[in-house]
Structures are given as C-alpha cells and as structure tokens.
Amino acid sequence: MTESESIAYDVVVLGAGPVGENVADRARAAGLATAVVESELVGGECSYWACMPSKALLRPVLARADARRLPGLSQSVQGPLDATAVLARRDSFTSHWKDDGQVQWLESTGAVLYRGHGRLAGPRQVTVDGPEGERHVLTARHAVAVCTGSRAAVPDLPGIDRVKPWTSRDATGAQAVPGRLVVVGGGVVGVEMATAWQALGSEVTVLVRGKGLLPRMEPFVGELVAEALAEAGANVRTGTSVESVTREGPTVVVTTDRGDRIEADEILFATGRAPRTDDIGLDTVGLEPGSWLTVDDSCRVTGSEWLYAVGDVNHRALLTHQGKYQARIAGAAIAARAAGVPLLESDRWGAHAATADHAAVPQVVFADPEAAAVGLSLAEAEQAGHRVRAVDFDLSSVAGASLYADGYRGRARMIVDLDEEILRGVTFVGPGVGELLHSATIAVAGEVPLNRLWHAVPAYPTVSEVWLRLLETYRG
Fold first, then answer.
1. Statement: the pTM of the whole predicted model exceeds 0.90
2. Per-domain residue ranges of the chain
3. Is 192 known as a binding-site position?
4. Does 55 appear as a known binding residue?
C-alpha cells in the first residue's frame, strides 16, 4: 500500500450521503477547504437504498389505491400493477445505482472527494484506503464530521447467515417480485415494504412482536394501517416473534414462538438500525467502536472540540430530512468556530442549535393510508410532564376528504399544551395526509399560540379544513 504525505483541509467529512453532502456544502460556502470521504456511492443510503427507491415503488401503489376510490375512474384501474414498469421507474430514480450526477454536484461545491474507506487515526487525523491500494492521510484544521449513517440491524438467530435474509436494501432494490414474502417488524420500513410488495403481487405475511404496527405513533394509526393491509390481502400477525429461520432449497421456513411454520420465498428483517461506526477508528480518539455518538445541539461530540457526528450516527432522529437539517446546523457551527465567532449556546432558535430535533420532528409513512406526525404523541407528552389534552377529529367528516375519495377513512389528532396554549404534537392518518404535515410542523416548531392559529383560515374544500374542525372541537 502506498501512503501519501498528509494533506491539510479545514474540514474532513466521513460519508457522502445527503448529510455529509450538506455539511460539506455549508463548510465550502463559508470558505473552508473541505474533503469528503465515501466508501460506496456518493448520495448515500437515501438516494440508492432508502428514500428514493422505496417511494418510487410506493407511488404507483398509492396512486392506484386513490384512483380505485373514485367512481368514473375506478373501473379503469382494476387490473394488476405492471411490476416490470414499476421496477424500471424505481431504477431510474436510483440512476441505476450510478453516482456520476451526485459526484458532479459535490465537486461543483469545491469539495474534494476521496473514494475509499475512511478511518480516524487520532485527533483531527483521517486515513483513507483507496480502491487501488493507495492510502491518503488527511488532517483537519478545524473539524472532522462523521456522517456515516446507519445500517439494518439483523437479529442474531442461529443459521441466519445461511438464509441470506433481505434487509431494507434488498427490499428496495429487488429486481423481481417474490411470490411469498415474510416481513418481520411493524415499523416504518416493515409497513412500507409490506404495502409495496403486496400491491406488486407478493403474498405478504407481517410478523410483529408488539401489539400493533407503527408503535411510535398514536395507537389509532397502526390500527388503521393494519386494517387496510389486511383488506388488501396481507396477513398481519401481532404479538408474534420469530424463533428460527432456515432455508430449505429455495424456500425460507420461519418458525414462530406460537409454533407456526410459515414458508416463503424471501424474508425481510425490518427490526431496527445500527450505527455505521464500527470500523471508522473511534477507538483512536477514546470512543467505543460501533456506538451511537452523543452530541450537543451543534452536533459536536460530547467532550470534543473538533469531532462532529451528524445524521443517523447521533441517534437523535433517523430521518433524511432531519439529518440534512442537522448538517446545516453543524456546518454553520463549524464555520462560526473556525472564524472565532462565539456561539450563543442559550439561543435555542439560533443558526447553530438543532432545536427541532427535540420538539418538532416530522415523519410520513407512505402506506395506504398514509400516516404523518410531528412532535409528541399523547403518551410522550404526558410522560414528559406536560399538562395536555388530545383533540381528535374524524377526517371523513371534512368536505375536502370526501371529495378526495369515496369512503375516505382517516383521523386527526392535535396535542394541546393546556398551560402554554400551543401544540405539542399533531398526527394525521388517511389518504394523502403527508401533504398536511408541513403546516403542522410550522405550528409545532413555531409554538404558534392557538388563538393565533385560529386566524389561519384553511381553503375550502380542502382536506386542510381539518385544522378548523380541530380548533372548533377544542373550543367546544
């Protein structure tokens, strides 16, 4: 292996996914010399194995579901989806797993890209083992930002390696529809992939250890989604754990704790995420390899003056949009500290504080029906010690929803802080509700007083009129 002389940059970024790209962009915009290290594809998990391919798979599924609820159109969309066309469109959104366009954008910012595996080699030092056996040694004058993301966590079941189960990457990138698919896990990935592959023709069985789907949202969300999945033909089994999994020829055999034997062509484990920090040299700076990294609100690692952890690796909010938000915060903080500008640590709404990661994290689950939530659920708000009231409204009673689709089923809930008269959280479930979420995010993040929110008049007849109905219900 040939080793180069050490090259100095102001900032070195490990990981060129959306988070790393945004840290680099903000650093370069501030005039800081920046290097970015990537061992896979520039653009990261979101572009090739998560957000983009999964939503490309789901969009035809949800569009067909909406069309089937509209008389005059429903008879035209009764046939099966064209799986070949859906998968081809998915492939186009991943640029066929080629990153030329992403590389061009990154280099247009002025950042220098290093291909290869990057590791910390002590304070402010990074080594990069390149694809041709070369080794680059990089020094960071001001900051190293760890933006390496997370990976699927597969349970340690006997013989699971021989089974070769699907993870989220396999589920979003598969080139053929499995005849029978077992999905283990009832979180976002499990629900979305069950929705997609069932609609594309798989016989889907969902195994959930807990009481229901989407347990981090309000209970009624998981209930409605489970009901819809069952109506679509999926077999949803709650309170069920996998005890063993084997592969007999091409067939996967699953045994549950209830003694059930389930045969399938593929099995997807959607059972959580783990940080991609096991082989990046954390031990050289006194940190535990493979651990989540604890940070302050500027995303600087606790106890360090130069190391930042941005995105999934800090375990604050494992969502692409939140990671990009953190990246903007971290980039601004790195630039300010490099320029010797003091940060106002007490300014929770300043340019250097990731305030929204505490109170206003939005998320959409692209199931049928869609689920969207921001802020705290009722249980979370009560656990946090807030004096709150949950205000519910049946979305099917809103004129815009009944126009959206016949037989519209959905529900909305806002969590009102009775002492502050602001919203602590908002949840929607129903077709198309993802487009309602940003208004809720503004209300929660901005701590808009309810007496002021009353004057934000929703257009008629839109689904957004549910805001007026929720406020009327609260006022009584």
1. yes
2. 2-43+99-151+275-356, 153-271, 369-475
3. yes
4. yes
